TrEMBL record:
Quaternary structure annotation from Swiss-Prot or TrEMBL: Monomer.
Transmembrane residue ranges: none
Keyword Cytoplasm among record annotations: yes
Subcellular location: Cytoplasm
Identification of the protein by name: Arginine--tRNA ligase
Amino acid sequence: MTDPQLVLTERVQQALGSAFGPEHATEDPLIRPSQFADYQANVALSLAKRLRRAPREVAQTIADHLDTADLSVEVSGPGFLNLTLRDGWIAEQAARRLLDERIGVPQPAPQTVIVDYSAPNAAKEMHVGHLRTTIVGDTLARTHEHLGNQVIRQNHLGDWGTQFGMLIEHLLDIGEEAALGMLAAGDGNAFYQAARHKFDNDPEFQQRSRRRVPLLQGGDPETLRLWREFIEYSNRYFRKVYRTLGVTLTDDDIAGESMYNPMLPDVCDELERTGVAEISEGALCVFPPGFKGRDDQPLPLIVRKSDGGYGYATTDLAAIRYRVRDLKADRILYVVGATQSLHFQMVFAAARTAGWLHDDVKAEHVQIGSVLGSDGKMFKTRSGESIKLTDLLDEAVVRAEAVIADRGYDAEARRQIARQVGMGAVKYADLSVSHDSEYVFDFDRMLALTGNTGPYLQYATARIRSIFRNGAVEPESVTGPITLGHPAERALALQLLGFGSVVAAVAQLSEPHRLCNYLFDLAQTFTSFYESCPVLKAEEESVRESRLALSALTLRVLLRGLDLLGIEVPERM
């Protein structure tokens, strides 16, 4: 089972080697979908300058050496190669996909991939800013697992630091039961703000809070007990959010800042002992090469402050060392806001200087853009506060229920479908734009049943299921064969063959929007097929069986693709 674009890439590379020598057999043929053929290879235009020959002449030479079994080739324009696959080859490959459990998704040599995502702060509520890191990270984790990689999810909670002295003292002031009840209910922001207000305005409270910090860091049993209560009740709230969103994070994936705290002295000692870090103005610093401040002086990455304390950089370096040495990572994905770009560049550079990151391990910052309101500014409440993620998700379900209210479902079915549609709409709207881009949060657009939205894809999938219900046929029982007589059948079959390479590209490039775009194009292609080609009422039995096979394959691809995006699909809509 082969992807058309990969087949054509190999064929054109073989022709390049035969025509111009083996040194050209690894050239990128620059193959792209074309409106004039199935695909177009543009390599002749870039190669002609180096060969000092006319592009059209180079293209014709490639065409003359091309293996045209199962395809036809035409030279057009200034030197484009128009490539058209034969119908029989497309039909055969589509039929094979129908019998393939993986639907053409490759299984490369497995790697250990660590995905660091979500990372809310303990004792605080999750807000809309956590939505993207959670959703994008979960899709990447799902995708890598489907490709056969060993995925280690890491939820890097903000669960340690000097702020816990303040929080523990406030808990003691208002009482454990009241404080923990607020955390479990998701009112962490109110609790934190009250503690912060007292810290800023009550000198006695501030002194108590400061005295509490060394007790926590020193392992005082009662202080640790209270801290653990904070973490447990925060985690109850996080679990509720993750269940609502349908993401795969569990308690086993928590690897918060506190986990690395015992490692920090050794990390600093190793950096200083090996000469990677040096004392500068009383602080222990790494000066990664190539980073300079406004004064054109080397920019320091502080790993131990002049007062002996540690910062985020120390924890992140400890995490890299642990993930490479202990977890044996081949690749580490940090799904974190774009504003942290410089921080991660410096941390990665420092880790490479220390030898913790080497050529066999790839660390990547998957930069996450901001969510904006309709005014083009950061998405906040009218009072200027961050919007609670739970409020946002609840509103999505309420609005989704209004969208499907007139469809005749009983109350229980309506609630279930509304939850699936609401969550699907929010997640798809996020995933369908490039992760490093900003996007405007707009319920009306994301819940629309038309256009590039989650509900549109859910509806398209439900409609295919209705075909099989109406025909009293189980999709799993359909085996083909597939024949292509109508252009819409051919277009659909060709589109279906691209699924595997798209999934591989999502993992390779960390770009879930590629899968969204593919699924939307597939749903549109199926709609054209459905409107042009009767399925159950096809005039001939062989044509009916072929169209049922194309429908079954489309259903499988849509369901698998949406599952990789973490989107549930209602049986009916």
